[in-house]
């Protein structure tokens, strides 16, 4: 019976396979450290394949380079022998929630998620360390090769991944930061859907470098926008008050969005309030649009000019289709538009033609818009027709690239929610909610692997409650220890993830207290998973290193302190089963059986698992599990009554449930 590999995918091998499909003549063999022949790439041939001229040696080319870039690429591709261990007591609604909170190094987390969430994430939002010369950044160990890393990572306590102060005096000040972000961004791209987006917050210090890294990894042609957020003024600055930050927005595949007619829009500021007001006035005045118009104008006249909702007052006329404005320019933007003849419907004479030409490409399109009420004529042909826009029509407006969002407001909201300043410089959840609303919908999956205070989770839950979506989130946060003299420590928090999880609990409770959309399933939970060394013992990964005297201690290839639920999640990772899938637990013939993503009758689940190690798994038990027709079935190697039962299991399942794939650990 085939064994599960129980480690993250070897991305070097996958990359070789992909190159082999494109350039089979560049595939060769090389002898590894163990003496075995392995597939490899002839890089000289590959260079020639990608060149229009003869390649003699290193060629000058436009690229971003820094000391450590190759090591960053190596560590990004290297497999790790780690797993995700469930932690029920630090979760909310563990069995049913569709949200994940992962505690541990985010590079490890992204690697572990590769198979399960490949091409499934709609939006990645991250707010990485800004490299100010004072903050801590992730320091990864590039000193070992891929094979050494695989062999050693299940033995080392931290695998070299840690937080360090990246001081400006460090000669690798920019290089260390670039290596850190490069590996993570490269792997995260694999997780995005073809219609997916990534948004990265950054300040001036690394903006130019991040822009070039994003261009290299995601493609310069996939840049959608660079947003600028004015956050606060610094009156103590020597030269200029640099109080803004950026968000770099890239698509996974911009051309895919264009080919599929994707157009991004957001609701106008204050549109919900406007709809409520109009409904109230209609109930009061019925079809008396003149009376409605008088009160409508009076309401918006009182709104201060500094209030963004004031702009809605421009829709100052009211008719049977609601508030509208009929002063729109009907000429082609920038000039050079078509200049066909348009006959005035009353005077029957040709209308005056705008100097820039009509904004509609041909006469048929013009009259279609007229019939829809989007074009109005003047009293005669001497007056240019105008465009008419209705407030409640359309999908909203395009998002601008410049915003005003003051940091003090975000801090005040956070302190009010948490009862104290337990986290420095939290992002505004309202700003992230706006990004979430603009770039996602429905049950889209959103990933933030620099979770911090869990602002992204707060934003996702709030937006779901508002529009009835059921977006899911995956948050990743390193277990950074909180210093003893801080407000956070004195408030009872010991690590940053402690703050993150409490923020989600409090934000979820607050969201439920507000008016919630009827279509939202009200999922405010999260399933906590912690990155740890593999559940498998050394003999599983490195059997040659085990000496004869150790054999009796290695009868079981699973570590003694690991639970059945630990094994379940490593199997789910290895087999690519959704880590958010609901889990049911049943006792059958005295053995615990897990049903993952099955229906109410436990039928047709994505995975059925039994990790019994008493040797009680026999043909009769296998027949019972086959009756549930699972897609996948997994047992513990030590659980079979005999080798004969293990051998017969595959044949038995071929007869009883031919679509079921069976493996053992």
Descriptive report:
By secondary structure, the protein is of the alpha/beta class. It folds into 3 domains: 78-266 and 402-534, Rossmann fold; 271-390, no CATH class; 548-664, no CATH class. It contains 20 helices and 23 strands. A 10-stranded mixed beta sheet has the order 3-18-4-17-16-5-8-10-9-15, with helices on both faces. Helix 4 runs parallel beside helix 6 (173-191), helix 9 (271-285) packs antiparallel against helix 10 and helix 13 packs across helix 14 (455-467). The chain starts with 10 loop residues before the first helix and ends with a strand.
Short description:
The chain is of the alpha/beta class and 665 residues long. Strand 22, helix 20 and strand 23 form a beta-alpha-beta unit.
């Amino acid at each position: 019976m085939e064994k599960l590999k129980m480690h993250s995918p070897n991305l070097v091998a996958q990359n070789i396979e992909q190159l082999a499909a494109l350039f089979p003549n560049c595939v060769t063999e090389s002898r590894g450290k163990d003496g075995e022949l392995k597939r490899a790439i002839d890089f000289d041939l590959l260079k020639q394949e990608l060149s229009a001229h003869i390649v003699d040696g290193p060629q000058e080319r436009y690229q971003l380079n820094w000391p450590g870039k190759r090591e960053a690429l190596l560590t990004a591709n290297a497999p790790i022998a780690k797993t995700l261990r469930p932690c029920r007591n630090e979760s909310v609604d563990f069995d049913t929630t569709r949200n994940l909170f992962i505690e541990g190094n985010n590079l490890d987390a992204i690697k572990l998620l590769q198979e399960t969430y490949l091409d499934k994430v709609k939006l990645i939002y991250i707010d990485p360390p800004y490299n100010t010369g004072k903050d801590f950044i992730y320091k990864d160990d590039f000193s070992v090769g891929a094979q050494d890393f695989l062999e050693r990572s299940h033995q080392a306590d931290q695998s070299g991944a840690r937080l360090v102060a990246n001081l400006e005096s460090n000669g690798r000040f920019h290089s260390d930061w670039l290596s850190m972000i490069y590996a993570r961004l490269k792997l995260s791209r694999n997780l995005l859907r073809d219609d997916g987006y990534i948004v990265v917050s950054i300040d001036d210090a690394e903006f130019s470098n991040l822009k070039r890294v994003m261009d290299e990894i995601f493609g310069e042609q996939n840049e959608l926008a660079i947003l600028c957020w004015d956050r606060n003024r610094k009156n103590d600055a020597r030269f200029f008050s640099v109080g803004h930050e950026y968000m770099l927005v890239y698509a996974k595949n911009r051309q895919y969005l264009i080919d599929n007619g994707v157009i991004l829009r957001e609701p106008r500021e204050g549109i919900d309030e406007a709809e409520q007001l109009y409904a109230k006035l209609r109930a009061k005045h019925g079809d008396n649009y003149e009376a409605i118009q008088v009160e409508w104008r009076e309401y918006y006249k009182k709104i201060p000019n500094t209030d963004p909702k004031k702009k809605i007052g421009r829709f100052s006329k009211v008719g049977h289709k609601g508030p509208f404005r009929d002063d729109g320019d009907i000429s082609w933007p920038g000039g050079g538009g078509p200049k066909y003849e348009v006959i005035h419907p009353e005077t029957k004479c040709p209308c005056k033609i705008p100097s820039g030409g009509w904004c509609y490409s041909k006469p048929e399109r013009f009259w279609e818009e007229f019939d829809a009420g989007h074009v109005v004529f003047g009293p005669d042909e001497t007056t240019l027709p105008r465009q008419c826009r209705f407030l409640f029509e359309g999908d909203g407006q395009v998002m601008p690239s410049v915003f005003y969002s003051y940091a003090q407001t975000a801090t005040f909201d956070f302190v009010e929610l948490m009862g104290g300043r337990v986290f420095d410089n939290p992002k505004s959840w309202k700003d992230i909610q706006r990004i979430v609303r603009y770039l996602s919908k429905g049950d889209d999956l959103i990933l933030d692997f620099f979770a911090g205070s869990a602002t992204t989770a707060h934003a996702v839950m709030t937006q779901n409650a508002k529009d009835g979506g059921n977006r899911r989130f995956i948050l990743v946060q390193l277990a950074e220890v909180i210093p003893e003299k801080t407000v956070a420590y004195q408030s009872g928090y010991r690590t940053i993830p402690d703050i993150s999880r409490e923020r989600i609990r409090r934000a979820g409770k607050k969201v439920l207290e507000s008016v919630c959309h009827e279509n939202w399933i009200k999922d405010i939970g999260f399933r906590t998973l912690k990155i740890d060394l593999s559940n498998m013992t050394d003999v599983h990964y490195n059997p040659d290193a085990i000496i004869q005297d150790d054999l009796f201690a290695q009868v079981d290839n699973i570590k003694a302190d690991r639970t059945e639920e630990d094994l379940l999640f490593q199997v789910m990772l290895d087999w690519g089963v959704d880590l958010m899938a609901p889990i049911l637990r049943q006792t059958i013939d005295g053995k615990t059986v897990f049903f993952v993503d099955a229906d109410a009758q436990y039928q047709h689940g994505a995975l059925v698992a039994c990790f019994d190690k008493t040797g009680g798994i026999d043909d009769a038990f296998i027949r019972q599990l086959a009756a549930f027709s699972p897609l996948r079935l997994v047992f513990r190697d030590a659980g079979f009554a005999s080798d004969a039962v293990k051998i017969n299991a595959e044949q038995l399942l071929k007869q009883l449930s031919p679509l079921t794939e069976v493996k053992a650990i």
